Amino acid sequence: MDKRSLTERDICTKFILLAVKRAGWDTMLQVREEVYFTKGRITVRGKLVARGTAKKADVVLYYKPNIPLAIIEAKDNKHAIGDSLQQGLDYAETLAISFVFSSNGDGFVFHNRTGLREVKDESLRLDQFPSPEDLWRLYSAWKGLDGSAEALVLQDYYDDGSGKAPRYYQVNAVNAAIEAIAKGQDRLLLVMATGTGKTYTAFQIIWRLWNAGRKKRILFLADRNVPIDQTMVNDFRPFGDAMAKLSTKSKTIERADGTNIDLALALDGKRRIDASYEIYLGLYQAITGPEERQKLFREFSPDFFDLIVIDECHRGSAAEDSAWRKILEYFSAASQIGLTATPRDWLCWVE
Fold first, then answer.
1. Superfamily designation of domain 147-340
2. Which helix (H) or strand (E) holds 144?
3. What is the pLDDT of residues 147-183, one digit of tens each?
């Protein structure tokens, strides 16, 4: 076989992926080919609208679903082994991937972005491609993950079986948040543009922490009813009977699929709290107020919640003089994650 006559796709299939498989990577669960992660920039000139070239990684390797470890960029055999390295590095920066490989089918150039090795670029034969365990050990050492932190970082994402997968920037945000909490950081701020799925991202963070048993009681705070109600019947729906709203007003609302559902309530008509739930969603206005009798949050013990997630935290909860800030101060022992599309200098509570 004249390797130089083969296309880039043939090189990838016949040599690169074969080497990956022989190194112990599960081609069904750990290997994805031609991974599109952007649709291309939209440009508008007068009445003309055009979309730029979509970005596509040749191969992405995952230790577990949504835990990406490495990217491989391929060239045909007329190119040098390292000719696709720079493109791989550019993609790895966007995808928050630590290890980059370039290949033309003769071998690999391996670039280690962690800084743990003196030599960043290393030439490898095809039969020297590292195993999943090899790369995970490097990654875990770089991140400083001990046994318990590693177990949390590897906790599964929620998967409803529909094939829906988080977008790459949601994966970046979820994994970064989980790693930070795993290593003991307890004040986080997620800055994501409007329309990029902050609530879904928050759900995946909460789901992984909750299922790992790291955070057992969680409070999701917002300042408007609509985000609370829609969150309960859409993104947070998998929490099921473990979830309730801190409200006395029963409400039936329509889900995205057109069916109706009654919201579970954690308060009775006398504003007494049902403490048997694990996931609570509430309005600031419903659990606090200027008078002492309105400060419902004080009915919980200060250590009741392990995690508090604050939606649109720029609207008041983080300000030094905000009345709503009292809630966060009261539950100061809990990990606190703020969600915003509008970061401000006065978000000083975030470490």
1. P-loop containing nucleotide triphosphate hydrolases (3.40.50.300)
2. none
3. 999 999 999 999 998 888 899 999 999 999 999 999 9
